[in-house]
Description:
The protein has 223 residues and is of the alpha+beta class. Helix content is 36%, strand content 15%. It has helices at 15-30, 85-94, 107-113, 129-134, 149-158, 179-199, 209-218, and strands spanning 40-45, 48-51, 67-70, 75-77, 100-104, 140-141, 164-167, 171-176. It has an eight-stranded mixed β-sheet with strand order 4-3-2-1-5-8-7-6, with helices on both faces. Strand 6 (140-141), helix 5 (149-158) and strand 7 (164-167) form a beta-alpha-beta unit. The longest helix is centred in the last third of the chain and has 21 residues, at 179-199. The radius of gyration is 17 Å and the shape is globular.
Amino acid sequence: MTFDGxxxxxxxxxDTVRTQIVQLGAALYDRGLTPGRTGNLSVRTDDEIMITPxxxxxxxxxxxxxxxTSIDGAHLAGDxxxxxxxxxxxxxxxxxxxxxxxxxxxxxxxxxxxxxxxxTEDALPPITPYFVMRVGRLPLIDYAPPGSxxxxxxxxRASQRSRAVLMRNHGSLVAALSLDSAVDAVExxxxxxxxxxxxxxxxPAYLREEAVADLHRRFPPTA
Length: 223
C-alpha cells in the first residue's frame, strides 16, 4: 500500500525519473548484479530524493510505489523508503553536484570486501583505465549493520574524500552526476573486483602511478 500523504503530483519528480529507476533496477537485477531484495537506487532533484522502497527487489519495481522524501528524510510520497536512505543522504551532503546514488550487493565486490589486507584508502587497484575514470578512489569501511548510525557515520567520513565507497561484508555505494553514471560506476566496481579475484596470486601488472595521474589529468573528476 502506498503512503497516504503527499502524492507524486506534489513532488519534483516526473514520469521520466520513475521510469529510469525502474528500467535500470531491472537491468541490474536481470544481470545478477544485486540478487533478491538487495541494493537501492536514488535520484535527487532540488530538495527531494526519490529512492527505491525498503525491502524492494530491483527487478520488480513499481514506478507508482517509489518513495519520495525531503533531503532531510521526511517521507513525502510512495512506499516507505529504503532503510539505507541515510547512506545516500551522506553522499549527497558531501557531493552537492551529484544527483544520483547507486548501491549494489554484487557478488565479486562483496567477496573482495571480505578479504584481509586491503587498503582502507583504496580497496581495489587500478587494473583498468575505466576503473580510474569512472570510480577513482574506493575507500574501504568497516562492517556496521545496514542503515545504522554507525554505518552512516563511516560512509559520511569516507565520502569526504571519494564519491565511491566499499562497505565490508556489504557492497558498493557510489554517487554521480546522473543515475546512468552511478550505475556505470557500481558496474565498474563489480567488474574490477571480479578481475582482482581472477588475478589474485598471479603477480599482475596494474596501471602505474604516472598512468593513473595522466588519466586524472585527461578525465578530471566532475563531482
